[in-house]
Amino acid sequence: MAGSDLYIGTLDVLILKALSWGPMHGYGIGRWIRQTTEDVLAVQEGALYPALHRLQRRGWLEEEWGVTETGREAKYYRLTPAGRRQLRSEVERWRAYARAVSAALDAAPA
Amino acid sequence: MAGSDLYIGTLDVLILKALSWGPMHGYGIGRWIRQTTEDVLAVQEGALYPALHRLQRRGWLEEEWGVTETGREAKYYRLTPAGRRQLRSEVERWRAYARAVSAALDAAPA
DNA sequence: GTACTATACCTAAGTGAACTAGGTATAGCA
DNA sequence: TGCTATACCTAGTTCACTTAGGTATAGTAC
Q: What is the distance, to the nearest Å, from the Cα of residue B87 to the centroid of all Cα atoms in its chain?
């Protein structure tokens, strides 16, 4: 998995968003992020797994071991109600932030 | 100056952009960011000044002491040619990143 | 049957940008 | 005389991410 140079702080909201589609395991979340951003973000596993543990520790995710479609063991994560609230608030924060920065960068001079 | 919780890595491009309007002193750059983002970003001085020194060390800024309109001493920063190139590349990086994240967050589920 | 790739998980050590929380000094105003 | 805004600074801390490894299994290619 090649580096993606994340703007630090944006990984959490992407993980929460991925899980808003339903339970997903860590590896699948990484794949979801890579695919839905068309390879613009390729999250390192060394960032992804610690982030999952962090979000779970904060009560935003719950884990459960399961089996994938291909018959492999995998740890599935699911949003808690608090996680869903957190998602909404972080999406709002991202939108306001992105709008503000983009506006500043769009203004006239090079 | 109240906290603004920057997405880490976005301050540099804002500083470079501020200076694309012409030489500006540190305090003025902080004000420019706050004003053009309509208070969405309020950069801490403890982040701003180290960032200016960092960008200068990398050869993207040059400094020169001058006097403000109100007759106060201030250190003016100016973009170097390398700084201007860096600005272009960081703006591109931001646009691609923001587009990708926004698309991922805009997709259907909550 | 043996190597290789993709899947699926993990962590320890290091980096470095931002935050916290102070500090100095001056101009202008009440 | 004190208060606010301007204008600069840094030491110490935090913590997310990067680097760089590790384990194990399913499926495929040779």
A: 10
| Nucleotides in C strand less than 7 A from protein CB | 7-13, 17-23, 26-28
CA-nearest of A37, A42, A35 to A5 is A42
Q: Residue B84 to residues A98, B21, B27, B49: CA-CA distances in angstroms?
A: 22, 11, 21, 20
Rounded to an integer, what distance in angstroms lies between the CA atom of residue B50 and that of residue B8? Answer: 14
Whether the pLDDT of residue A1 is over 70: the answer is no
Percent of chain B with pLDDT over 70: 95
* Pairwise CA distance, residues B61 & B87, whole Å: 11
> Under an 8 A CB cutoff, do B40 and A100 touch?
yes
What are A37-74's pLDDT values in tens digits?
Answer: 999 999 999 999 999 999 999 999 999 999 999 999 99
Reported as half-sphere exposure (CB side, CA atoms, 13 A), residue A47 has a value of 21
- Model-wide pTM > 0.90: yes
Smallest Cα–Cα separation from B45: which of B1, B82, B75? Answer: B1
User: Strand D closer than 7 Å to the CB of A13?
Assistant: no
Calpha distance A44→A26 (Å, rounded): 11
Distance A46 CA to C21 C1' (A): 32
How much is the pLDDT for A3? 47
Cα(A61)–Cα(A63) distance, integer angstroms? 7
